[in-house]
Specification:
Elements lengths: L1 E9 L2 H31 L7 H6 L1 H7 L9 H24 L16 E4 L6 E3 L9 E4 L3 E6 L7 E10 L2 E9 L12 E6 L3 E5 L4 E3 L3 H4 L1 H13 L5 H35 L2 E5 L3 H4 L6 E2 L7 E2 L3 H14 L1 H15 L2 E5 L24 E3 L6 E3 H21 L1
Length: 399
C-alpha cells in the first residue's frame, strides 16, 4: 500500500529564495507548454500537441536557458509537463461526460505551489535518518534543506514533492509499505448518521459535537476580507492582507482535518463494521433553481435561496466528504469493513415497526412513529436504520 507523509521544511533565507525560483521557473514551463498547445490547435489546423512531443523539447529548452530551466531537475520538469497533460485529459473527459469542461488555465506564480519529483534520487534525495534533528532532503539547484521530522518514515520512498503554503515550505513523501497488521476484532458494529446540529450520531445514541470551525472563524475572515477590499490593487498592503486571509483559511482547514482524523480513528478502533449514508454532497449543495413569476415578466418568486445558502455553508463547514474519505482509508489500514447505504427514508422509517411516514419526524430532533408510538432522537433513529441497511447489504454481498 502507499502512504503519504508531510513534513515542515526549515530552509535558510537563500534556500527559500531558491525554492521560490524553482516554483517560478516550473510555472513558466507549465504556461509555455499550455501556450504551445493553444497555438497549435488554433493556428495549425487544430493540431494536438502531446506530452511526448513537449518532453522531447526539454533538452533544447534547458540548453537555450541554462540559468533558469537548465538548473533544475529534468525529471521534475517532465512531471510538470505530465501535470499539464493530465489537466487536458481531464478536460476532454469532462466534455465527453457532458459536464462543465473547465479548460486548463494559465497559472500565476502565486497559484503554482508544488513541484513533483517522480523518483527519490533523481533530482532529489531523502535522508532516511529517523528522529534526527539534522535530517535533510536535497533538491537539485537548492541543496540540503533541514526537515522537521515529527514521526518516522516507514517504507520505501517512491516520490518526493516540495510544496509552498503561504510562507511555509513542506516536503511530501509517497511511501510504499507493507499492509499493516489489522486491529484486534471487537465484535462491535455501528451505523453513523451525518448531520449539522451534531457532526455525527451513532446507532448506540452517541453524539459527536459539530465543531463549526468555519463559523467560529467567520468574524475574523470577514474582517480580513474587508481589509483586502479596502486596499489598492497591486499594493504591498493588499498582498499582506491576502496573505492574512489565506492563513486564516489554512488554519480552519487544519482544524477540520484534525477533528476528522481523531473522530475517524476512534470509530475504527471501537468497531469492526461501520455503515454510513451514501451522501451525494454535491447534489445536496446545489443552488435552488429560480422561479419566474408568470404574472410579472422579468421577475422571480422567492425560492428559498437565502436559507439554502446558509445550509450549504454549514454542510461545507462540517466537511462530511473529507471525514468519510479519511474513515475509509483508516478502516482499510485497520482491517475494518465500511459500507455505504442508500440514505432514502432513513430518518422517516421507524426502527421498531418499519412504518415510513413524513409525519414520523415532526421536528429536527424528535422522532415519534405515528404507527406504533415509538419515540427517540431523530438522528439516533437514522443511525439505527443505516446500520440495519448496512447489515442487510453485507449479508447479501456475502451470500
Amino acid at each position: 500500500m502507499h502512504r503519504a507523509y508531510k513534513f515542515l521544511l526549515r530552509p535558510t533565507v537563500r534556500q527559500a529564495a531558491a525554492l521560490g525560483e524553482m516554483l517560478r521557473d516550473h510555472c513558466s514551463l507549465y504556461n509555455g507548454a499550455l501556450q504551445e498547445r493553444r497555438d497549435a490547435y488554433r493556428h495549425t489546423s487544430k493540431t494536438t500537441v502531446r506530452y511526448g512531443q513537449q518532453s522531447a523539447q526539454l533538452k533544447g529548452i534547458r540548453a537555450f536557458d541554462p540559468d533558469c530551466q537548465g538548473r533544475w531537475s529534468f525529471s521534475s520538469q517532465q512531471a510538470t509537463l505530465r501535470r499539464l497533460d493530465k489537466a487536458f485529459a481531464a478536460f476532454f473527459r469532462r466534455i465527453k461526460a457532458g459536464g462543465k469542461p473547465g479548460y486548463p488555465r494559465f497559472r500565476g506564480c502565486s497559484r503554482f505551489d508544488t513541484v513533483d519529483f517522480p523518483k527519490d534520487g533523481d533530482g532529489c534525495r531523502w535522508d532516511p535518518t529517523p528522529h534526527d534533528p539534522s535530517t535533510r532532503v536535497r533538491f537539485q539547484g537548492v541543496g540540503y534543506v533541514r526537515v522537521h521530522l515529527h514521526r518516522p518514515v516507514v517504507g520505501k520512498v517512491k516520490t518526493v514533492s516540495v510544496k509552498r503554503e503561504g510562507k511555509r515550505w513542506f516536503v511530501v513523501l509517497t511511501v510504499e509499505q507493507a499492509q499493516p497488521e489489522p486491529l484486534p476484532a471487537t465484535g462491535s458494529v455501528v451505523g453513523i448518521d451525518m448531520g449539522i446540529a451534531s457532526f455525527l450520531t451513532t446507532s448506540g445514541g452517541e453524539h459527536v459535537a459539530n465543531p463549526r470551525h468555519g463559523c467560529k472563524a467567520a468574524a475574523k475572515l470577514g474582517a480580513a476580507q474587508q481589509a483586502v477590499s479596502r486596499c489598492e490593487r497591486g499594493s504591498k498592503r493588499r498582498r499582506k492582507a491576502v496573505v492574512r486571509v489565506a492563513a486564516l483559511h489554512r488554519k480552519v482547514r487544519r482544524q477540520r482535518l484534525d477533528h476528522a482524523h481523531k473522530t475517524a480513528l476512534d470509530i475504527v478502533r471501537e468497531h469492526d463494521f461501520i455503515a454510513h449514508e451514501d451522501l451525494k454532497i454535491s447534489n445536496m449543495r446545489a443552488v435552488p433553481a429560480p422561479k419566474p413569476d408568470s404574472d410579472k415578466p422579468d421577475t422571480f418568486l422567492p425560492n428559498g435561496a437565502a436559507a439554502k445558502a446558509g445550509l450549504n455553508q454549514s454542510i461545507a463547514d462540517a466537511g462530511w466528504g473529507v471525514f468519510l474519505a479519511i474513515l475509509n482509508v483508516k478502516a482499510e489500514s485497520a482491517g475494518r469493513e465500511v459500507m455505504a447505504v442508500d440514505p432514502r427514508n432513513t430518518s422517516r422509517q421507524c426502527p421498531e415497526c418499519g412504518h415510513i411516514a413524513k409525519e414520523n419526524r415532526p421536528t429536527r430532533e424528535k422522532f415519534r412513529c405515528v404507527g406504533c408510538g415509538h419515540q427517540a432522537h431523530a438522528d439516533t433513529v437514522g443511525a439505527r436504520n443505516v446500520l440495519r441497511a448496512g447489515l442487510v447489504r453485507r449479508g447479501a454481498d456475502q451470500a
